[in-house]
UniProtKB/TrEMBL annotation:
Transmembrane segments: none annotated. InterPro entries: Bac_photo_RC_H_C, DUF2382, PRC-brl_dom, PRC_barrel-like_sf, Stress_Response_Assoc. This is DUF2382 domain-containing protein. Signal peptide: none annotated. GO terms for biological process: photosynthesis, light reaction. One of its GO terms (cellular component) is plasma membrane light-harvesting complex. Residues 156-268 form the DUF2382 domain. Coiled coil: none annotated. Residues 20-87 form the PRC-barrel domain.
Length: 278
């Protein structure tokens, strides 16, 4: 039966088969707790899509060799992210034919692989047990190699979404505060005083002759009087009109957001059997 890579049979398997996606790159260990390599790919039956082999890259264990591990020999530990290859030894890996991205896997190649796991040295269809026939072979004849191992306990992961609220500080603007000069015309009125000389001429009331003529005529007699006036003294001076303080304050606000969250729940089909849900 033709075998194909899982991505060729299930193009969208990464979205629909999360467990399968997890298996890729799992480490593979032999029974003596020796690391065999890592899962490089998965081969499925092109007729019904059943898993048949894990392609294991042996890496430095057996340098540069890729071999096939039947799924029935793979004990997958999802929690530990590793696979135990039951009954696999280093000697068997050395006997297995190199996969190395073959374009086509035929019956003879698979028989070489099966022969190693059966404990025989079948090569190219030689030394096959009589019960195996090329025309009528069915994978059920090697159920120990191809039946996925069952266990008493299995884990099913239920996922749910949750909202994660974080804050980011970002610059929303910039305020620049400076000064500029404006000019206006101011007017002020200052009262000033000026002195003037006023000469008043009056007719004497006493016209009697003077006893002494020496007081009557004195040439060069002068009356002096100082005259003053005020002049405005107007000037400009700078004074502090007001003080401006610039500071920041923090205002708090609450932003509301809502999203639809998904949660997985179990669908239990017990078919009438008693189930204890703890």
């Amino acid at each position: 039966m033709p075998l194909v890579k899982i991505a060729d049979y299930y193009p969208d398997y990464r979205n629909n088969h999360s467990d399968v996606d997890d298996v890729q790159n799992f480490d593979v260990y032999a029974e003596r707790n020796e690391k065999v390599g890592t899962v490089h790919n998965i081969l499925v039956d092109s007729v019904n899509g059943n898993f048949r082999y894990l392609v294991v890259d042996t890496g430095f264990w057996i340098f540069g060799k890729k071999v096939l591990l039947p799924v029935g020999r793979a004990d997958i530990r999802y929690t530990d992210k590793l696979i135990y290859a039951r009954g696999l030894t280093k000697e068997q890996v050395e006997e297995l034919p190199n996969y190395d991205e073959l374009e086509k896997i035929d019956y003879d190649y698979e028989e070489q692989v099966r022969g190693v796991y059966r404990g025989s040295t079948a090569t190219s269809g030689l030394n096959q047990p009589a019960s195996y026939d090329r025309a009528s072979y069915n994978y059920q004849q090697d159920s120990s190699l191809y039946d996925m191992p069952s266990s008493d306990g299995q884990t099913l992961k239920l996922y749910e979404e949750r909202l994660i609220a974080n804050k980011q500080r970002q610059k929303t603007g910039e305020v620049s505060i400076g000064k500029h000069i404006e000019t206006e015309t101011a007017r002020v009125a200052v009262p000033v005083e000026k002195e003037r000389v006023v000469i008043e001429r009056n007719s004497p009331t006493d016209t009697r002759p003077q006893n002494s003529s020496s007081d009557a005529f004195r040439p060069g007699e002068v009356a002096r009087m100082e005259i003053y006036e005020e002049t405005p003294d107007i000037r400009k001076e700078a004074i502090v009109r007001e003080e401006v303080r610039v500071k920041k304050v923090v205002e708090q606000d609450t932003v509301q957001a809502q999203e639809k969250l998904r949660r997985e729940e179990l669908d239990i089909d017990s078919q009438g059997l008693p189930i204890v849900d703890k």
